[in-house]
Amino acid sequence: MKRQRSPAKSQQSQQASQFRIIGGQWRSRKLAFPANSDLRPTPDRVRETLFNWLQDDVHQANALDLFCGSGAIGLEALSRGAATCDFVDAAANATRAIHTHLQTLGTSQGKVHSGTLPSALSGLDACFNLVFIDPPYALAHLIPECLAALQASDSLADNAAVYIECAAATPLPALPPAFQIHRHKTFGQVQSCLLYFHVER
User: Fold this and answer.
1) Where are the alpha helices (DSSP H) in the chain?
2) For residues 143 and 150, is the Cβ–Cβ distance under 8 A?
3) Which residues constitute the signal peptide according to the record (predicted)?
4) Mapping DSSP to helix (H, G, I), strand (E, B) and coil, where does residue 31 land?
5) Is the pLDDT of residue 14 over 50?
6) Distance (Å) of CA 171 to CA 94, 123, 130
7) CATH architecture group of domain 7-197
8) 144 preceded by a cis bond (ω within 30 of 0)
9) Residues 70 and 94: beta-carbon distance below 8 Å
10) Best CA proximity match to 140, nearest among 24, 6, 10
């Protein structure tokens, strides 16, 4: 998680100022995020499960990483064959770090946007096949707002895969009917959920 330490992520020490890309062309590359920041990359085991779920959805996808924090999930998607990834976060230290990551990896496939969600979604003009929504736990109520905004702006391709993450102790927020749950798993105090979007006709 990005801005709130959780029990499930206690395995990442206070000294952990790096995350590791775990698959694809940049496998095992380590990237630093700001020391002493409150950014907390999604743990390896959660990302591994997520990308096992997404193995048929990543290749050549246009991805969107909301509340992107360290950028670990979006960069993992690019490493595993996504065509593009837009990263969105309100924190300046996060967006600066992701700019650096993209330069370090020598890729022009990522775009970084600063802004508060869900209002920042109005500045995006792409159609996405793959979306990651992982807000700070206290902001889980923004998940359905982001989903509704993406749907209203026609920013999602039909059958787009949408990953959401929130605290296990918090019930999943009510989802717009066009989003159907496909996978759900709890990792300690973290719950992960994969949705698919279907255009309402």
Assistant:
1) 44-53, 72-79, 92-105, 142-152
2) no
3) none
4) strand
5) no
6) 28, 30, 23
7) 3-Layer(aba) Sandwich (3.40)
8) no
9) yes
10) 6
The band of 16, judged by pLDDT with boundaries at 50, 70 and 90, is: very low
40 confidence band (pLDDT: 50, 70, 90): low
d(CA 180, CA 72): 25
Is the sign of the CA dihedral 167, 169, 174, 176 positive or negative? positive
Q: Determine the pLDDT at residue 39.
A: 65
* Residue-range domain boundaries for the chain: 7-197
Residue/partner pairs of 120-124 with CB below 8 Å, 24 or more apart: 120/88, 120/90, 121/66, 121/88, 121/146, 121/149, 121/150, 121/153, 121/155, 122/149, 122/153, 124/64, 124/86, 124/88, 124/153, 124/155
84-111 pLDDT, tens digit per residue, is 999 999 999 889 999 999 999 999 999 9
H-run or E-run covering 196:
strand 190-197
What is the Cα–Cα distance from 147 to 77, expressed in whole angstroms? 20
CA distance 159 to 139: 26
Residue 99's identity, in one-letter code, is: H
Per-residue pLDDT tens digits for 20-34:
999 999 999 999 877
Q: Which of 195, 194, 196, 190 is nearest to 46 (CA)?
A: 190
Q: Are 1 and 29 in contact (CB under 8 A)?
A: no
